[in-house]
Structures are given as C-alpha cells and as structure tokens.
Known about the structure:
By secondary structure, the protein is mainly beta. The protein has helices at about 1-20, 60-65; strands at about 20-30, 35-45, 50-60, 75-85, 95-105, 105-120, 125-135, 145-155, 165-180, 185-190, 195-200, 205-220, 220-235. The protein is globular and about 50 Å long.
Amino acid sequence: MIKKLFLSAVAVAAFAFAANAQTNIQSFYDFGRGYATSTVEMFKGDKFGDTFFFLDHYYSTADQRKNGTSSAINGSYFEIERGINFWQDSNLKDLSGHVEYDGSTWGAGIWCFGAKYFLHSADYSKTFTIALMYDLHVGVGAADVPIKLTGVWGLNDLFGLKGLVFKGFIDVWGNNSFFLDGSTAKFSVLTEPQLWFNLGSVFDNHLDVGGEVELSYNFAGNKGFKCNPCAGLRWTF
C-alpha cells in the first residue's frame, strides 16, 4: 500500500512540476510522537477549478529501528481534492463544487462530495476557504454522521513582517471511533496551524523555516485532546 501511495504521489508531482503548479516539500520533527514526517503538497488553479493534493510519510522511531523495523516509512496518508468551477466569471465565482479522496496505509479510503466557498482580501494576502462534504467510506460502514467540515486559511506577511506566513487547516468530521477502554466517539477534530518565515533575505527565497502544532480531539486512536508540536523546513519550487 505504501508503494502504491508513493508511486501515485510521484506521478501527480511530476504533472505538477510540468504544469508549473505551486508545489512544496515539508520536513518536520514531531516532538510529541518522537519521529520525523515529510509532506509533498501541490495546488494549481485552472479555468475549470483547482486541484490540490498532499502526501504525508511518517518515519520509524529510533526504538522501532532498534527493534528491527523493516521499513523506514511507518505509515502514509494521502489526499487529493478537485474543485469544480466552470462559472469563474459570474457572481458565484467563489463557490465551487468539491470532490476529495482520502487514503492511508491504515484502512479503507473515503470519498468526500460537497461544496466550498473562497474568501479573500483584495490583494489575496489573506485567504480562507470553507468546505462542507458528505463522506462515503469505501469498504467499511459509514459514520453515524457522515459529514466533514474543513476550513483552510493563509495569512501572508503577518504583522507586516515580509516573509512571515501563518497558514493551516481545521477538520471536523463524524466517525465511529473505538478506544482501548471500550468507549466510542462520534466525531473528531484536527487542526494544524503552521508558521513559516522565508529566508530569502539571508539565504534562499525557496526555503522557509518554521513548524506546526497538531491539535486534535478523538484522533489517531487518542481519546480526548492531544497536542503535538513540530519544527520543520519547507522548500517551495
């Protein structure tokens, strides 16, 4: 499964580079979990809408490698999204249809269908997108409330400081999560605010330094609230 996800991401990334899309690679160290992660991310708009994808790899911890873990990659997660908008010259230009597929090495995939709305400042330095979707689980039973709500934001030159970017997302979705103590949860929350500073004035304008904080509730087998701070680097092509 990891190999299939990796090959799919390579194919999409190759298309992104050829199409001159906005593409970046991020590398983090997760202090909460004690392992490294990497992300390939791409966004491209066109006259029919937009395409976005990311692929996360989670790498084995030092203890796992010491105990003979056969693979450096301990898991992967992949999302690809398509915004559908044939009416970009109309008064409804900021409203799009939305199709999304989420897949991982831990279980069946999820198709998401819905709509999204784009908000922005006049110069696009401040953006916010909100999407409401119906979740269709592949191969497993649907959640009692199969709805997903996603918000994505971006603030460039935060506090007037050129090169300082605050971005991230928040997901709220229905599920049927089971925990080791026998309890269940009907919904989960995940948000990952990121802060990046571009090093163009001192090193290279493709390189950012910063990090993110993963804040979650009933997520990844953890009951209740969880906080995982991460430090990282980002290279934008």
